[in-house]
Design goal:
Layout (H helix, E strand, L loop, with lengths): L5 E4 L6 H12 L4 E5 L6 E2 L5 H11 L3 E4 L5 H6 L1 H21 L4 E7 L23 H20 L3 E6 L1 E3 L12 H12 L1 E4 L7 E5 H13 L11 E2 L3 E3 L1 H11 L4 E4 L3 H7 L8 H7 L7 H18 L28
Parallel strand pairs: 1-2, 1-4, 2-3, 4-5, 5-6, 6-10, 7-9, 8-12
Antiparallel strand pairs: 9-11
Helix pairs in contact: 1-7, 2-4, 4-5, 6-8, 8-11
The structure holds serine.
Family: Belongs to the NAD(P)-dependent epimerase/dehydratase family.
Pfam family, one: Epimerase
InterPro entries: Epimerase_deHydtase, NAD(P)-bd_dom_sf, NAD(P)_epim/dehydratase
Amino acid sequence: MKTDIILVIGACGQIGIELTVALRERYGRFNVIAADKVATADILLDALDQDALRNVVRNCGVTQIYLLAGTFSTPAEQDIPPGWKLNIQSLLSVLEVAKEQRLDKVFWPSSIAVFGPGSPKYNCPQQTCVEPDTVYGISKRVGEYWCNYYFEQYGVDVRSLRFSGLVACTAPTGYGTTDYAVSIFHQAIEKQHYTCFLNEDTCLPMMYLPDAIRAILELMDAPKEAITIRTSYNLAGMSFAPCDLAAEIKKHIPGFRIDYQPDHREMIAAGWPASIKDEQARKDWGWQPHFDLKGMTADMLAQLTKIKGAYPEQEQMALHDFPDFPNEDHDFTGVFKI
Ligand code: SER
């Protein structure tokens, strides 16, 4: 029987850390190669370097790629060319290599940012007006079209999810518009105070990372024939505004205070839907979220308190402190020499 060899590109990022760990539980430690541009990865790989990618795929017998390298909404708005290049060029490289090397499967994350001010604000469905008005949203929409194109033209089995704002205890607080929902937890524990860059009532679709990881695994496990969306699936978890999250945190930390100083990120958030409908994902591969606001808040606070207690000097958990994450003891650089 053929062994699955998985390449995770962007393994040290927001989704990559927990996904790599989950994939290793399933496929085995040495069948999942964590690639990134940082030293804690198994191999150093620039997502834009197609030749290097092709070499890794050939030399290691890679059968599946999870492409997670990319930029978030806020930096993409501030410096357009690099953000565009990273989000689109890396995807095209992966799709080309997947086509040439006949890979079994590819995963690539899209985002609710593909929707824009013309899309329905509430319960935004799969098929609707999709006219993004941010660099990040445009890049994700274009990426969705490329996924569909490579599937239709070349049969590349590429699968994708439109992620909401992701909340993770293991990842560094990021630069996305939705990342207030991560920073707030860190600040609540450290200072019992947070200044939010969105309005108190700006409601956005959100998801706790364990649900997002499970969604990726379930989507990738589904039989090929079950996948009817080859652009990207809407995927709903929960929806809340900063004031809702603050109220929930207050139940655990009664002294917690929040104030609001909306900045340019509020403009980005205002163009996105407040909630998403994901009927197709439910129908095609049985998607069901597990975490709501209450469950996520309780778990985030418990996990972060543990992490911050164990690593008091650090802003967040360092990558190599995450159980089972690639570290100096497992240097793959020589094994998978590019
Ligand atoms: N979390 C992303 C961002 O805010 C949206 O998908 O940039």
